[in-house]
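Figure-free illustration: sequence to structure, shown twice.
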Amino acid sequence: MSAESLSQQDVERIARKALKELGVSATTVTVVPVGAQPDAWRIDYGGDRPLNIKCGRGSTAQWVRTQIFDQFLSR
C-alpha cells in the first residue's frame, strides 16, 4: 500500500480504528476529499470539529493514524 496513494475507503477504515482507540464511539465516521486539494481528507466523526489530514503517494496507515491522534489529542 505504501507505493500508491491511500483510497478514501482505506482512510475511513484507519480513521474508524484510530478513533475507537481514542475512545470515540461514533457510529458515523465520514471521510470526504477537501476541495481541490489532492490527497487531503476531512474526517467527520460527530465531534466539535472535523479532523483534516493529508496522505499522498507513499503515505502509510501509520502516518494517517499519527495525524488523527495528534489532532484529536491537541483539542
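We now fold a second protein in the same way, so the two outputs can be compared directly.
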Amino acid sequence: MVATRKTGKTMNRREKPKPLPVKSRDWIEAECLKLAKQVRGAAGIQRVIIRRLRPIPGGPNWKAADVLPQPDLVLIGEVRAVLTDLPSLYALEDERT
C-alpha cells in the first residue's frame, strides 16, 4: 500500500488504472481541432489528423500527427503543447471491422 501525497488515501500498487473512455477518430479529431483553435493566432487551422499508436497496455493509443494548414514553428509548438494531454484522456476506438 502506498499513500498518495495530495489525498492521503492509500492505493494498492497492483491496482489497474481505470480504462479510458473510447472515442471515434472523428470525435477525437474534432476535439483536437477545437482545442487547437483556442491558441491565439491559430484560428486558421482547419484540420488536425491523429495517428494510431501501438501502445504498451494501458498507455495512449493515438497522437496528434498533423495540423493543416501547417502554422509557423512558434505557433505549432503552442498548438502541440495544448494537445499533449488528450491522448491520456481518451482512447481511439478499434476501427477494424
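Summary for the second example: Strands lie at 2-3, 10-11, 22-23, 47-52, 62-68, 91-92.
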